[in-house]
Specification:
By secondary structure, this protein is of the alpha/beta class. The chain is built from 11 helices and 10 strands. It folds into 2 domains: 215 residues, 2-enoyl-CoA Hydratase, Chain A, domain 1; 48 residues, Lyase 2-enoyl-coa Hydratase, Chain  A, domain 2. A hairpin with a 7-residue loop joins strand 1 and strand 2.
């Protein structure tokens, strides 16, 4: 089987495509995959690639070295501060705009991308790493993984959409608890309250992730596109009649696809369908 390497422009993010699964790996293990500008720029570039790529049916986001991501590089922030606070002279409005763009091009693109995005958590997902994991459609965690917002512990309010995604997943009351108290949540507790979808032994995470990703990658991609749009519209507060109308439009549209006709034939013939994304 062939593998396509995606050029990210940095070693802080590794990206490749194999069997219609794009795997994006946050890769700063010495910093528990804490974000860097290079990593975020590479992630934005890779996500733009896989969103448009015809050879990608599912995206997996994971981390190297036994962690998912520590989020913002607090150690790096402290080092810069201790060195005299050396920072490029950029106005606050420009800095806010740059962060808005970064968030839209990463967490925002994951959320809106018309393909399933699966987060595989081999270990800690903290701060903005937690937020990025929550932006994904599904999360599968190793049994030793932990999730923590962390922001209150370092005097930040939170970024990369975590407050939105956590609120949608577990409700406002639980999201407030996660953010205000910044307590570590074990994988099993995360499963119980709905932060993750599956928990597996650490030794089985890669295999379980691959199996789920391949299942999604070979599924009805047109239907997935509109399922995701339906759910996102409902989660964003649309009223029931708007959601009903959108469902009707998408349901009729998908009923006219080649994938639907193939699935109907496969049902009658008692076999698994072969979807082609059209």
């Amino acid at each position: 089987m062939s593998t396509r390497t995606i050029e990210t422009g940095t070693s802080h993010l590794l990206a490749s495509v194999e069997e219609r699964v794009a795997t994006l790996t946050l890769n700063r293990p010495e910093r528990r995959n804490a974000f860097s500008n290079e990593m975020l720029e590479g992630l934005a570039r890779a996500l733009a690639d896989v969103e448009r790529a015809s050879d990608v049916g599912c995206v997996v986001l994971t981390g190297s070295g036994g962690a998912f991501s520590a989020g913002g590089d607090v150690k790096g922030m402290n080092e810069r501060s201790s060195a005299g606070g050396a920072r490029e002279e950029v106005g606050i409005d420009a800095r806010i705009h740059a962060q808005r763009l970064s968030q839209r091009e990463t967490a925002g693109r994951i959320y809106a991308m018309p393909k399933p995005v699966l987060a595989a958590l081999p270990g800690a997902a903290a701060g903005a790493g937690f937020a990025l994991a929550m932006a994904c459609d599904l999360r599968i965690a190793a049994e030793n993984a932990v999730l923590v917002t962390s922001f209150a512990r370092v005097g930040f309010s939170g970024d990369y959409g975590g407050t939105f995604f956590a609120t949608q997943a577990v409700g406002a009351a639980r999201a407030r608890e996660l953010y205000y108290l910044s307590e570590r949540v074990s994988a099993q507790e995360a499963l119980r309250i709905g932060l993750v979808n599956r928990v597996v032994p650490a030794s089985e995470l890669e295999k379980a992730t691959r199996e789920l990703a391949l299942r999604l990658a070979s599924g009805p991609s047109v239907a997935y596109r509109y399922m995701k749009e339906n759910i996102n519209r409902a989660a964003s507060g649309a009223d029931v009649f708007e959601c009903l109308d959108l469902e009707a439009t998408h349901h009729v549209h998908t009923g006219l696809t080649e994938d639907h006709r193939e699935a109907a034939r496969a049902f009658v013939e008692k076999r698994e369908p072969t979807f082609r994304g059209r």
